[in-house]
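Q: What would this chain look like folded?
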Amino acid sequence: MKPRIYVETTIPSYLTARPHPLIRIAANQQTTREWWDKKRNEFELFISDFVFDEAAAGDEIFAQKRLAVIADIPSLEVTEEVDELAARFLEKGLIPATAELDAFHVAIAAVHTMDFLLTWNCKHINNVSIIRRIERVCAESGFACPVICSPDELLP
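A: My prediction, written as structure tokens:
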């Protein structure tokens, strides 16, 4: 059985965006394309309706590209458990209310027993200053937190 991976919105965004002028972000875009081309088939991929909605927003041409990339990826259901876990992240201040969707991305991945949550969101999700606390809240709620990582961490 392949490891299960929740693909957060930054992945299709980096995959389809025009090259960024900042070298670091352009490198992350290239890494994302490399992971997508060489490694994604080693995983069972999942998204949520939140990813779909975020991917559909913005510039119509790039939204279409993002949606095409995720078109065949199954979407995970938002359940009462997901709502409750996301609320705990927000209540404890791990993720600010202004980034509520980020709390839902983590909650969906945890509740649906994903092995990994793949993201370039290093402000509210893949951030070493909060990952341990996110893991504790997941455990206290009866869920295992997926490994939160970026594509470069899943390349050989």
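The radius of gyration is 15 Å.
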